[in-house]
Write a structure and sequence with these properties.
422 residues, alpha+beta, OB fold (Dihydrolipoamide Acetyltransferase, E2P), Dihydrolipoamide Transferase, Chloramphenicol Acetyltransferase, five-stranded mixed sheet, 9 helices, globular
Length: 422
């Protein structure tokens, strides 16, 4: 029986997606789990995997077109199976044979010459600086370019929509065209600073963040509770575990925080919840979202069933998903289904902060740096490790006493981290 492929819903508020490209072409064999297509949502470019084995018999959506969630975009059938492609096409087009509307040409100076041949990146000289559109580059690629002294504008990206990735930087660095940073002692050339105002159009991700954060702050009654946590035991246990795990499996402090929060949520299901009009939905699964900084803003990657996973499992999953997010290659399961979110700015030497709830979650945990600080132990001044964490909670779902008890449970688990190993 032919299996329809529809535009997936890759977020609770997603209404449509842009089909970036078909990874599998019509007529090709498809295996379950293989990537069929790349879809751009408000948040990221997502690789959509097949749920079936067979042949990609027909596709009904053009690359670059926007499709409503649930719209039929293709069909997979068994080899040799008879398929009424025209009937599926009529279904996909809503009863007409019209093609989907493609993305309009960008309103940039380059749009006027869009019909001109596009130079390829197979050894031809790169487009001159000043003739390229807005630079698209992943954060890790930008950092590598800075460290290597390479001007990223000289590189033609191979990622989605020409995005420059880590692999592009590595390839360019090995090529004879790579431009190194000026040698020490070279004449200093003053940089001319423009005093003109610049208007930067919002990306889809930044637009989505703006819309959702305004919605959250104007419709969700937030309240905040901060606790200071003794992180000395976590620092010591992490040191011991990393010595055993080796370079490939090192744990971060954030891995301990994710697991501790997940275990605390077991005790307080009302915080692992969502407000649903006249009811509260207490989620059976504990899926902890982790806010990841990407080029255009923030993206939340999700550790599903975090309470049931080991620290190395959590570490491996978060690292892999964060890398895909920064390279614009997230999978649909990476970014959907969170029931609680953690925003950790500890790596930026932040003492403490408050975060805005990520709907439909009922709470978010803002985590600052774990740092050495003067503390009093048994009446004696000493040096200890301290970290501040602040929960932002939805007052429609929970109250101050319950949120404070959650924070006590979270604190107790981190101060007795062997609980995380049970």
């Amino acid at each position: 029986m032919p299996e329809p492929i529809t535009m997936p819903k890759l977020g609770f508020d997603m209404a449509e997606g842009k089909l970036i490209r078909w990874v599998k072409k019509q007529g090709e064999t498809v295996k379950k789990g293989e990537v069929l297509a790349e879809v751009e949502t408000d948040k990221a470019t997502v690789e959509v995997e097949s749920f079936f084995n067979g042949i990609l018999t027909a596709t009904f959506a053009e690359e670059g077109s926007f499709q409503q969630v649930g719209t039929l975009i293709g069909v997979i059938a068994a080899p040799g199976e008879s398929v009424d492609v025209e009937a599926f096409r009529q279904q996909a087009m809503g009863g007409t044979a019209a093609k989907p509307v493609s993305l309009p040409a960008p309103s940039t100076p380059q749009a006027a010459s869009a019909s001109a041949p596009t130079p390829k990146s197979n050894g031809q000289p790169p487009v001159a600086i000043g003739q390229q559109p807005m630079l698209r580059i992943s954060p890790i690629a930008r950092r590598m370019a800075d460290e290597l002294g390479i001007d990223p504008r000289l590189i033609r990206g191979t990622g989605p929509e020409g995005r420059i990735t880590k692999k592009d930087i590595e390839a360019y660095e090995k090529s004879p065209k790579a431009v190194s940073a000026p040698a020490p002692g070279a004449p200093f050339t003053p940089v001319t600073v423009s005093r003109e105002d610049t208007t930067v159009p919002l990306t889809k991700l930044r637009s989505a963040i703006a819309r959702r954060m305004v919605e959250s702050k104007t419709t969700v009654p937030h309240f905040y509770i901060t606790h200071e946590i003794d992180m000395g035991p976590v620092v010591e246990l992490r040191k011991q575990l990393n010595a055993m795990l080796g370079e490939s499996g090192k744990l971060s402090v954030n891995d301990f925080i994710v697991k501790a929060a997940a275990l605390a949520l077991r005790q307080f299901p009302n915080i692992n919840a969502s407000f649903n009009g006249n009811s509260v939905v207490r989620h059976g699964h504990i899926n902890v979202g982790n806010a990841v900084s990407v080029e255009a803003g923030l993206l939340t990657v999700v550790v599903t069933d975090a309470d049931a996973k080991s620290l190395p499992q959590i570490s491996s999953e978060v690292n892999a998903m964060a890398a895909r997010a920064r390279d614009g290659k997230v999978k649909s399961e990476d970014v959907v289904g969170s029931t609680f979110t953690i925003s950790n700015l500890g790596m930026y030497d932040v003492d403490s902060f408050v975060a805005i709830i990520n709907p439909p979650d009922a709470a978010i945990l803002a985590v600052g740096s774990a740092r050495e600080a003067p503390v009093v132990k048994d009446g004696v001044l000493a040096v200890g490790w301290r970290m501040k964490a602040t929960i932002s909670a939805d007052h429609r779902v929970t109250d101050g006493a319950e949120a404070a008890q959650f924070m006590q449970a979270f604190k107790k688990t981190l101060e007795e981290p062997l609980r995380l190993m049970l």
